[in-house]
Design goal:
The protein is α+β, with helices and mostly antiparallel strands. The protein has one helix at residues 12-23, and strands at 5-8, 28-31. Strands 1-2 form a two-stranded parallel ribbon.
Length: 33
């Protein structure tokens, strides 16, 4: 799987960033352990 952005951490900031990127057409993946 290829994506433009990888976000480490699924806390409030990580999820907000993922949502904002999605709204701007940028693919991302959120990684949480």
């Amino acid at each position: 799987m290829r994506t433009q952005v990888g976000i480490i951490g699924a806390g409030p900031a990580g999820l907000l960033l993922s949502h904002l990127l999605h709204l701007n057409g940028i693919e991302s993946v959120v990684i949480e352990t």
